[in-house]
Each structure stands twice: as structure tokens, then as C-alpha cells.
Amino acid sequence: MVSVAERPSTNRQAMAEGWISMDPHVLQRITKADLPKGDVLAVARIAAIQAAKRTWELIPLCHPLPIHGVEVQISPMVHQSALRVQASVTTHAQTGVEMEALTAVQVGLLAIYDMAKALDPAMEIGGVRLLSKQGGRHGDWRRPHTPGQAVESSPGEQAESLKDSHTG
User: Fold this and answer.
1) Pick from 107, 90, 96: which is nearest to 50 by CA?
2) What is the pTM of this model?
3) Which of 95, 129, 105 is nearest to 52 (CA)?
4) pLDDT digits (tens, 9 = 90+) for 41-51
5) What is the pLDDT of residue 78?
6) What's the CA gap between 115 and 72, in Å, rounded?
7) Which residues are CB-neighbours of 23 under 8 A, at least 6 positions away?
8) Active site residues
9) Which CATH superfamily is domain 10-141+162-166 in?
10) What are phi and psi of 35, to 5 degrees?
């Protein structure tokens, strides 16, 4: 484990995203909260927040960090028949929260899969990536936009957003 003892504590933020594609009928049922296991989106948000807070227990060599905020947004991507999960994590610490944001996205996506797998076991998870980070000795970083590649918004996000923010 890398020592961060000599680093100053600074404000840190990281944002990540990923998606899960599925049968259009399943997407419709999820967005209408019409699944036997309950409100998939609410459960996925809580799972993502919990994952961000417990990343250090899941990923070897990650430092335990005081998480000051976690925002999770789940948006339908109607044209791709998918849901996009985006997580933003903030702290004031000696190391960054990139792993916490990425873990939040992955676990949020897995929660969606778990709750809908009986209806569509062929769902596909992908596109998990860091979008940006702020703070730290390497400074700010933002994923460069590549034509045809979603960064801040995904094609199909003109559909109604299912945004819900939480602070944990």
C-alpha cells in the first residue's frame, strides 16, 4: 500500500459512468418500477452509494477514505435500450476517489442486473470508465471527447432523466 502520509489533504472529486443494455420491454418495466423485486433504480442507487463508501474493503490496497458525498444518476438511453449509471464522489483527503466512483458505478450496474436477470439474463454491462477527477498532486483531469463517444451525455438521453442525488 502506497503511503500518503506526507501528502496534504485536499478537496477531491471523481466522476465515472457505465451502462447496462437490455431488452426494450425490460427497460420499460424498470423505468415504470414494474418489477417483482421492487424499485430497481432506488435499489441500484443505494447499492452504488454503499459500494463507494466500502471500496477500501473490496479493492486490495485502496485506502479507507472519509466520503463526503456521493451522487448517483441513472438515466435511460432509449435508443440503445440501456440504462446509464453515473456516480460522482467527493472527499477531503490525501488521496483521490477514482476507485470509489468506479466501484459505485459497477455495483449499481450489478444491482440492476440482479433485480432484472429473471426477465433478461442476456443483459450486458459495459462502458465503465472514469470521466473526470479533480484535486491531488496530478491536478484535474477530464476524459477527452471523441466523436461518436459519450462523455457528458449519451445518445438517447433526450429521454426523461431519472436523476436522483444522495449524499452519504
Assistant:
1) 107
2) 0.85
3) 105
4) 999 999 999 99
5) 93
6) 18
7) 81, 119, 120, 122
8) 114
9) Molybdopterin cofactor biosynthesis C (MoaC) domain (3.30.70.640)
10) -120, 150
